[in-house]
Amino acid sequence: MIQQAKTYDLVVIGGGNAALCAAITAAEHGSTVLILEGAPKPYRGGNSRHTRNFRCMHQEPLAVLTDRYTEEEYFEDLLKVTKGKTDEKLARVAIRGTEESYAWMEAHGVRFQPSLSGTLSLSRTNAFFMGGGKALVNAYYRTASKLGVEVMYEAQVTHLERCGNRIEAVEFTHQGRSHRLTPKAIIVASGGFQADLDWLASAWGPAAKNFLIRGTPYNKGAVLRDLLDQGAESVGDPTQCHAVAIDGRAPKFDGGIVTRLDCVPFSVVVNNAAQRFYDEGEDVWPKRYAIWGRLVAAQPEQVGYVIIDAKSLELFMPSVFPPIKADSIEELAEKLTLPPEALQNTIEEFNAACRPGQFHPTELDGLATDGISPAKTNWARPIDTPPYYGYSLRTGVTFTYLGLKVDETSQVQSAEGPIENLWAAGETMAGSILGQGYLAGFGMTIGTVFGRIAGKEAANYAKH
């Protein structure tokens, strides 16, 4: 039996950054707000718990951000990683919204810090959260509580009842009972479907069973599927996602950002036959780290291996699990279960192709190989200084890009036009902007800017 419960102006589905920005904004615009968070309280916040920075446009040095980062440069960076697969109007709304959002975030409890060693290439573009994503999430929950926002944890939304071009009711389960709410407006900010491994495999094929899920195990896309089944317009490709090459020893779910390995630009990367398969030095890591999840996914058994030497060990953020260490390439191969002779040949061929030049670890240095394929176009130094180190790599999926199509006001669209009391923010609509690829800190950009837009629009609708 579905029980009629208290009525709210606005129900926000999800409990991460986008949901919180929406809820806070709506409350400040006079709405009574309920957040339905599917996770238990200790795991609240979705993937936002694992974030660490926010990509921010600015015209001059801004607090912890150095120099300037213009709208046009930001947009060009996005075009590079998406290869043009983006909605320019929505992308520019997100980009323009970041500069003003910095002050808004600080005013609502978020604290920033300068870039850490190993992330200096981001000092101009990305503002880092003091205490990471967990601190940001906790700050927003404190702010929301002060504004009277109510939160229900372990509240699994099962159905949004669409009638014509409105959502009439929200149905969910909590503490073993079914409930039904009839709010004036609804904001969906409940992420992608990456934690539903069957859905992931239906898009990717059996290879997806070997993927690791970096983020929350609660993002199974139930609300997304429910709305798509009822005619909400979709955007994005189900095989596109934010996929990163992560430490192969990471847990199946919820390993978070600490499982990412940032050593690829200074390494040789091989598959399980000890063969290189892509340019490790194509661009600075924040613009290329997200392509490596898909590259590894295309390799046999969806696995890769990173090989570095002693002179590169201090050039990247430390890994959460220590690297495998050996005194020779052959010994390292055995420890990584790679064919020793094949790895030795690959490393020797690579070393012979390296050319003299100036090495600059934080910028494109043009230090490239000559005469091998694939080439390494930057940071190509011989792997010749023992001890040697290695990591296994697996595909770590953060969030999927299939989502709800929205307009510039974050309102959800259908074939019959906008669904008049439904908005979406964050990962559940990010496919509108991210057709493929990823830019470091851009998920937080989308969630923050469109969360605030959705909160304002939904509150105004509820009021009038």
From TrEMBL:
InterPro entries: CobZ, FAD-dep_OxRdtase_2_FAD-bd, FAD-oxidoreductase_2, FAD/NAD-bd_sf, Succ_DH/fumarate_Rdtase_cat_sf. The keyword Ribosomal protein does not apply. It comes from the Bacteria. Keywords: FAD, Flavoprotein, Oxidoreductase. Coiled coil: none annotated. Residues 9-435 form the FAD-dependent oxidoreductase 2 FAD-binding domain. Pfam families: FAD_binding_2 (PF00890). Its cofactor is FAD. NCBIfam families: CobZ_N-term, PRK08274.1. This is FAD-dependent tricarballylate dehydrogenase TcuA. It comes from Amphritea pacifica.
